[in-house]
UniProtKB/TrEMBL annotation:
The keyword Hydrolase does not apply. It comes from the Bacteria. PANTHER family: FAD-DEPENDENT OXIDOREDUCTASE 2 FAD BINDING DOMAIN-CONTAINING PROTEIN, FUMARATE REDUCTASE. The keyword Flavoprotein applies. Pfam families: FAD_binding_2. Its cofactor is FAD. Residues 7-434 form the FAD-dependent oxidoreductase 2 FAD-binding domain. This is Tricarballylate dehydrogenase. Gene3D superfamilies: FAD/NAD(P)-binding domain, Succinate dehydrogenase/fumarate reductase flavoprotein, catalytic domain. It comes from Variovorax ginsengisoli.
Amino acid sequence: MSDEQVDVLVIGGGNAALCAALMARETGASVLLLEAAPKAWRGGNSQHTRNLRCMHDAPQDVLVEAYPEEEYWQDLLKVTGGLTDEHLARLVIRASSNCRDWMRSHGVHFQPPLSGALHVARTNAFFMGGGKALVNAYYRSAERLGVRIRYETPVASVALDGDRFIAVRTEAGERIAARSCVLAAGGFESNRAWLREAWGQNERGEWPADNFLIRGTRFNQGVLLKQMIDAGADAIGDPSQGHMVAIDARAPLYDGGICTRIDCVSLGVVVNREARRFYDEGEDFWPKRYAIWGRLVAQQPGQLAYSIIDQKAVGRFMPPVFSGTVADTLPALARQLGLDEATFLRTVADYNAACRVGRFDHTALDDCHTEGLTPAKTHWARPIDTAPFHAYPLRPGITFTYLGLKVDDTAAVRFGDRPSPNLFVAGEMMAGNVLGKGYTAGVGMSIGTAFGRIAGTQAAAAALQQKESHHAIA
């Protein structure tokens, strides 16, 4: 394929890549998208998503009440602990307020608010049919607009002339040149060797990364991310940080997706392999705090923990895909889990004795809390005393990594803080600019959508400008 045949090359096949391809094509550029996965597994991690976190100042179609910019920013500030670029974060937040009409124009449908989930419907717009339906809609729209798509085409290397993009070489050895390029090929969460390097060995002699499950795609190996960093591109983020969730320990190694999440953590207690609690299960609403639990479990012995609830909690959370361990007594539950019975019973007894039950309300930061207990449980604390008792085994489930390429608001890859004139990046490969650590539901899709659209627009402008200058010279 010669330089004359494609204006914009997009590497990746998930939400950010598709947004870039669609925007570039709408701008008038010819576009080729390379997806490493087979067609059946296209879409990267986006196929497992459910929603988009959206700023809005008043009720808007599928969003209830209001979720203003400052509240969104404060939520992000809280979960990241300040490890975020405020300018880029606010860019994402503002872009989240006006992207849904564009998404609808490409076939995405949104789920009307569901009763009982209004605190989520206030902040997040849910995709009808989930991320798979969103990805399929974007691919249909891309094909209709004339975006060329090639599956099973992993890229092995990028050729640069200084900070200028020239071409890529696929794993099959094919050279593909383009006037500009958007990198949207995901993080390195599927690369076990790199995860091992990032997490290292702990004081117990364990390699925590060996026990991580990959919630999403197996195709995110970080090949181009590593190569760009080695080529001198400015990097941002800690390689050990990422979107990591406590998921069912029995989940598959790859592509377990949303259904492997365990959502009853805030309704009971979580104990490690030594039968001890290690963190406040009631710190905040689950959509804000669920993503801290993968990292917490990763720091426990054997990277294993158990979410324990009693019958009072049943029916109050999204049912897990796998049945829990059930017992009529707490000693029997401890024996089934292989936990030290005496330690487990003491942990639960100490927790029960510390509970100060007020008005229980799982939709609010209620006044049910513990006193004199370390760690405390600050909300939704009720004694675990009603049989049968249930337990779910937890392991760290990594969704995507936060080490990425540094950008400004043009999405350009930077070399020594100098922006490339024709190489751009979007999605997981730059999410660390906004997410230094932590996570809040739906913000990954907000970042991918905002920067995918920016990168596609900028790449098309760069390509068309180059084409015009060539014509002028000719």
